[in-house]
Amino acid sequence: xxxxxxxxxxxxxxxxxxxxxxxxxxxxxxxxxxxxxxxxxxxxxxxxxxxxxxxxxxxxxxxxxxxxxxxxxxxxxxxxxxxxxxxxxxxxxxxxxxxxxxxxxxxxxxxxxxxxxxxxxxxxxxxxxxxxxxxxxxxxxxxxxxxxxxxxxxxxxxxxxxxxxxxxxxxxxxxxxxxxxxxxxxxxxxxxxxxxxxxxxxxxxxxxxxxxxxxxxxxxxxxxxxxxxxxxxxxxxxxxxxxxxxxxxxxxxxxxxxxxxxxxxxxxxxxxxxxxxxxxxxxxxxxxxxxxxxxxxxxxxxxxxxxxxxxxxxxxxxxxxxxxxxxxxxxxxxxxxxxxxxxxxxxxxxxxxxxxxxxxxxxxxxxxxxxxxxxxxxxxxxxxxxxxxxxxxxxxxxxxxxxxxxxxxxxxxxxxxxxxxxxxxxxxxxxxxxxxxxxxx
Length: 441
Description:
By secondary structure, the chain is an alpha/beta fold. It has four domains: 81 residues, DnaA, N-terminal domain (GMP Synthetase, Chain A, domain 3), CATH 3.30.300.180; 165 residues, P-loop containing nucleotide triphosphate hydrolases (Rossmann fold), CATH 3.40.50; 74 residues, Orthogonal Bundle (Helicase, Ruva Protein, domain 3); 91 residues, DnaA protein, C-terminal DNA-binding domain (Chromosomal Replication Initiator Protein Dnaa, Chain: A), CATH 1.10.1750.10. The chain is 60% helix and 9% strand. The model has no long low-confidence stretch (mean pLDDT 84).
């Protein structure tokens, strides 16, 4: 029982079987796992009313299911939205990301990281930090394009330090999650608890730190958190898809601090490393690939590790689900399908609006509305520009989607295009939003 998420995933099918579809959707469908500590499972409900009713009517059922599954007496508490927000911000409560990292990340360790010329420096730096946290290379800043192994190294640091220092208080979080937690703490007037939560830890791991760039309040809070931990000799590890010098919307004082320690970039793997990755991953999956197939994949997939793993999993599916032999023809087919699927992916305008709203910390409905507030108008114009640039929708179709005349869309797109010519920060914003949209695929 490593995490609240794992426990909740275990009992959900039993609840679905025990209750009717309507009852399950009404009472349990919107519950979210918050925390698991010793013998207590904490869940978050969509409203105070439902939280109260579940505690009164269904708590014994949930506890009995837990006892049947895990042979242990586990208490259950369902919190309403405000209580859940306060709980997340409470001192000593690890963020949900800390639980999520334990689920499905056990394979991401140093001994399973394939080292080559493209990543050796970053690997050695991460290993040094894990073996002696807070003493060497603080902060450690890992950067490189998506799918090259930054998160693998971050998880490896986490697991190694947890193994050797089980008493260490560690926080792992993503840049956008830090922003969201801060917004929630401000809304609930719990900023003091939020600060204490982050500033009394032994190790801070932040994935995708570039997400805080351009967010003034988040940068202010992270600046103070960074200083507090650094001055106390606590280890900080950050990852990003670019070096600090390329984060145009990052405050100079943060950029300077990110460069204080050691920066290590990860490049796409070379041919020999790709072969080693394919061989290692196939063995882990129980797939004994012939050397010629390994070499064929390595020659044709060169961008990142994620695509290599995707090809291997596709081959395994051919074998297990269709009974196909693993040969050059099927390897070629798997590669073609992987590349074609990625190239043919066209996101819906809803996804683009959602990611734009998330980036600007707005409600998607606000962007779709008629507000003339400057920040909302900009987000709406950016959404229109991205929709026009990466979908096949015409101006009238985009206008219909937003409930606007097509000339409004045209002027919005033209304004963004004109601004991009002289505004590097806006270029970075649009690049980030497009990357987030692609990550949804």
